[in-house]
Amino acid sequence: MKTIIKYELVINEALRSALNYNTPDEQINEFIRFFGRHIGSDRIYIFEDCKERHGTDNTYEWCAQGVIPEIDRLQNVDMDVIKWWYDTFSKGESIIITDIEDIKEEHRMSYDMLKAQNVRNVVVCPLRYKDEISGFFGVDNPPKSDYRGLTSFLDMIGTLLISFLKMRNSFIKSNKEAKLSSYSSLSKIYASMHFVDVQTKRYHIIKMTDQIAEYLGKDFKMGKYEIRDDFCGYINDIAEKMCIESQLQESLEFVDLSTLEERLLGKNSITHEFIDKISGWGRSRFIPVDYDEDGKLLHVLFCIECIEEEKKRENRLIYLAQTDLMTGLCNRGSGEKKITEFLKEKTGGLLCLIDCDKFKSINDTYGHSVGDKVIIAVAEKLQKTCRDSDVVLRLGGDEFAMFIPGMLEQRTAEKFLERFFENIRQIDIIEMQGKNIEISLGACFYDGYEEVSFDQLYRKADRAMYQSKKQKGCSAVIYGEEMSNFIRMQPSQL
Question: What residues contact 463, with CB distance under 8 A and at least 6 apart?
Fold first, then answer.
């Protein structure tokens, strides 16, 4: 699954990177370069067939560092040399050779050709145009461990490459309508795509999903070539209907054509992320298409893509990076960062360090699975005791911490700690047969007047913790300014 997600991300990023370039040739070269570098292959290439001369030409190639290019030698290759490839393609299958030694006897010419290029394994997929095979693309020496992921996306890669090639062909013909059609075929990753004349504000809708069209009340038929006026009014209306209120102004500023040329200066594209009312997170993008002889921007592509899944993955990664997976609390890094932010703002409060006494004995006596239950139970009671605005974190092992902003009075703190220990007493681990969990707690106040670091507060709370551990059973000690000035909460109080 991880491998499949990896290829999905690589393909999407390769496509986005390619679209930052102005010409189709540049886009194709960037796509295979990006893809090749990120999957770890030796060579990626595209062959285009010429049926009139029964030959196929290597038209695009990317090679890893140290790999000898083959493109100049691989022109007008007789299709009969690899006839069995085309036979396989016609069955709807791709060529997957995990070890070229396996084909040495049955396909000697292919073997000799691949061997001469230092190919050890290869994956080749046909390029189909109008249901006919028009060539193929190949990946030499991909990581063997990634075959599953790579082969799962061969058809998608082939479709994208065909779109690039179609765009190139239309580019060569200099036919605007054909050019827009090729953009349409390339717009698979976008929910909508528009071709906009920056100077006249006229536009052509290349793509719009039925869902968006229905929501907007627009009558749009895919493939119909129609130039419309007033892109500014049209796109402002879309923004007002689709964007959430808090992001509307920023979205309107992004689609403002009067400032677009300045914002695009020296850039291949500009983007803006927003939340729409249909599918959640989206990303709009302006891509310059061409300029006049004086460098004035003439045409752009305005595209919108859904990035909801991308945001979910991003948020999941952020969550994993900031969270202790066993308890769901903040981990040490993220928790300490949150507390530090309070301290920088000079927000006073109470820092507490919490330790489960005799935890090693629990693991040794009842097993580590019971020890895990104890840690999870203590974490749950910490969360129950604290407010949403409080910071609760697991420092590691059986050690926890919490920062209670605004808690500055001893009596208030004592009541808070009494409530916490009452919650602790309610923990009942079946395997422990009624044995209580004992907690030692060290705390210190921060008055918010002077600058102080997390480490400074931690050391004070830790000294209080040392005193707390001298008590039998559950106990808490709050640090005072002088070593002798500890506020002890005796077990009877708890």
Answer: 442, 479, 483
Flag whether pLDDT at 460 surpasses 90. yes
Provide the residue type at 295 as one letter: G
**Residue 176 DSSP code:** H
Q: Are residues 153 and 18 in the same domain?
A: yes
- The answer to whether the CB of 66 falls within 8 A of the CB of 141 is no
According to DSSP, the residues that pair with 391 across neighbouring strands are 403
My answer on whether 480 and 362 are in the same domain is yes
Q: Which domain holds residue 465?
A: 323-493
Provide mean pLDDT across the span 474-492: 61
Instruction: Compute how many other C-beta atoms are within 10 angstroms of the C-beta atom of residue 404.
Output: 23
- Predicted confidence band of residue 223 (pLDDT cuts 50, 70, 90): very low
The first and second tokens of residue 236, run together, are 């402002």
Structural domain includes residue 29: yes
What order do you get walking across the sheet with 439-446 strand by strand?
Answer: 391-396, 399-405, 349-356, 439-446, 475-479, 487-489
Could you tell me if residue 183 is inside a domain?
Answer: no
Q: Give CA torsion, residues 94, 98, 100, 106, to 10 deg.
A: -60
Per-residue pLDDT of 360-393, as tens digits, reads: 888 888 898 988 899 999 999 999 999 999 999 9
Dump pLDDT digits (tens) for 106-149.
999 999 989 999 999 999 999 988 778 999 999 999 887 666 55
180 assigned to some structural domain: no
Rg (CA), the chain: 32
> Among residues 277, 94, 255, 285, which one has the least CA distance to residue 189?
285
β pairing state of 122-129 and 280-291: unpaired
Residue 23 sits in the same domain as residue 156: yes
**Is residue 286 located within the same domain as residue 366?**
no
Residues 270 and 408 in one domain: no
Find out whether 281 and 313 touch, Cβ atoms under 8 Å. no
Give the integer Cα–Cα distance in Å for 466 and 313: 42
- 135's CB contacts (< 8 A; 6+ apart) are 46, 47, 48, 49, 56, 126, 127
Please state, in angstroms and rounded to a whole number, the distance separating the CA atoms of residues 360 and 27.
60
CA distances to 15, 169, 326 from 164, rounded to whole Å, are: 10, 9, 47
Alpha helices in 367-453 (DSSP H): 368-385, 410-425
Distance, C-alpha 482 to centroid of its chain: 50
Give pLDDT tens digits for 259-292. Answer: 999 999 888 889 998 888 777 888 899 988 888 8
Structure tokens at 137: 């693309």
Residue 446 contacts residue 351 (beta carbons within 8 Å): yes
Q: Give me 427's structure tokens.
A: 């923990």
Q: What is the value of pTM for the model shown?
A: 0.45
CATH number, domain at 105?
A: 3.30.450.40
Q: Phi/psi zone of residue 450: left (φ > 0), alpha (ψ -120 to 50 degrees), beta?
A: beta
Domain count, the chain: 3
